[in-house]
């Protein structure tokens, strides 16, 4: 999950020593630990209404009197949870934690508390305490997720978009017509949440076949050494080499009577049992493509079925698995579109 805030900038290794660090918060999930902190400086601003944080927007922010404007920027970092010590090293090296000399505005009463969510807030509580003297102030991940999603959808302009046939189209959110919606958070596992208002939600479903499955199975099957490498491979692959299509079963024909085109996947990975190839002949890029397709399709289908079950017209997808990756979004959209017979549109917002 992703306690995302406005004005995001993925932090490079820039030196923060000239800036004043105000806030640090963490989300430690099963795969990734995400960290956000705000640094104060006069060259940037975060406009809480527009969600801007870039230098170029300073003029606009200066001209915008009716909304709170903070001079500075939000910095985002991510670490593999399996390398949590790198996250602690980063906090220590940047002196982001209370007690670090750059930390200027922490009041005495909150000196050792840092907001943290995700399972890692529990799992690594002792580690943070022992290494950095930080007490993790735990927030429930579903509460954070829903609060973050509602905030982003209401406040950040051009946050949500559909992705259909390679076309990204921003969705105008009517604040008075946002609820109810289905929030599908694709992290290591997948949570599906019916959201009916601020703080009003129910986790209605989930699946353990999620981002962790893609990365985990992908590693085992392709020997990739990074998630990005696996994604990059999937760009170049052809899933038809691995997946058994309806046409493979029906001699190239559609199965029109039940509405299945010859190009529809009849069985993910199924082709590998029906031809006489040696295992070594299967290319990693084709495997990566099939895997991404299988998992995205499955999530899209379960999401649609839950939307149907609870009468929800709109589905918002988030989580780090998506990360703006075109093929993932396209597959999810196609799955939702396919199962809803064109009635529901998958609305995807960037993780
Ligand atoms: N650089 C990366 N390294 C590892 N996984 C990545 C990376 N980028 C994207 N991912 C994908 O994002 C998933 C993690 O997403 P996210 O951070 O939203 O979930 P999480 O908080 O770790 O998990 P959960 O909420 O289930 O505990 C990974 O399982 C993987 O599929
Ligand atoms: C366990 C959590 C909530 C941790 O973020 C997530 O990984 C998840 O929703 N997993 C899917 C579990 C299931 O519903 O089958």
Automatic annotation (TrEMBL):
Lineage, uppermost ranks: Eukaryota, Viridiplantae, Streptophyta, Embryophyta, Tracheophyta
Keywords, in A-Z order: ATP-binding, Coenzyme A biosynthesis, Kinase, Nucleotide-binding, Transferase
Catalyzed chemical reaction(s): (R)-pantothenate + ATP = (R)-4'-phosphopantothenate + ADP + H(+)
Annotated metabolic or biological route of this protein: Cofactor biosynthesis; coenzyme A biosynthesis; CoA from (R)-pantothenate: step 1/5
GO biological process: coenzyme A biosynthetic process
Pfam families linked: Fumble
Molecular function GO terms recorded: ATP binding; pantothenate kinase activity
An annotated GO cellular component: cytosol
Membrane-crossing residue ranges in chain numbering: none
Nucleotide-binding keyword on record: yes
Domain of life: Eukaryota
This protein's record includes keyword Nucleotide-binding: yes
This enzyme's EC code(s): 2.7.1.33
Protein name: pantothenate kinase
Species annotation: Quillaja saponaria
CDD domains (alphabetical): ASKHA_NBD_PanK-II_Pank4
